Amino acid sequence: MLQLVENDGFTLKSDPVEIFSETDDEKLIQAPSLVYEDGSYLLFYSSRCYTSEKYSIKYATPGSVSRPYDRGNDNVLGSVYSIPIEDLDTLTL
Fold first, then answer.
1. How many beta carbons lie within 10 A of that of residue 58, not counting itself?
2. How far is the C-alpha of 55 from the C-alpha of 53, rounded, in Å?
3. Is residue 42 part of a domain?
4. Predicted TM-score (pTM) of this structure
């Protein structure tokens, strides 16, 4: 769901809008980050539980900010399981 707020970041400015329908994300989408650049929006988000082998970081694009978003097909960072767990604390992106 997406909902516009006033400049104070708290006061609701609109009704919520559904931007995703249910998919293979197991109803768990975390840490959304919406970026606006060169007239286009791009939404990054984590999909599934981080302890799952299917955990991923994905992206989606909308026609406009409050329209349904089309999910990209790729995992942005690849599988976290391709990185040895002991190396995660020194990982540089």
1. 19
2. 6
3. yes
4. 0.67
Asked whether the beta carbons of 58 and 77 are under 8 A apart, the reply is: no
71 touches 57 (CB < 8 A): no
Number of domains within the chain: 1
pLDDT computed for residue 91 by the predictor: 52
Q: Which long-range contacts (CB under 8 A, 24 or more apart) does 42-46 make?
A: 43/19, 43/69, 44/76
Task: Tell me, yes or no, whether 86 lies in a domain.
Answer: no
Q: Which residue range(s) make up the domain with 55?
A: 1-77
**pLDDT tens sequence across 20-62:** 776 666 677 888 888 888 888 888 888 888 787 778 888 888 8
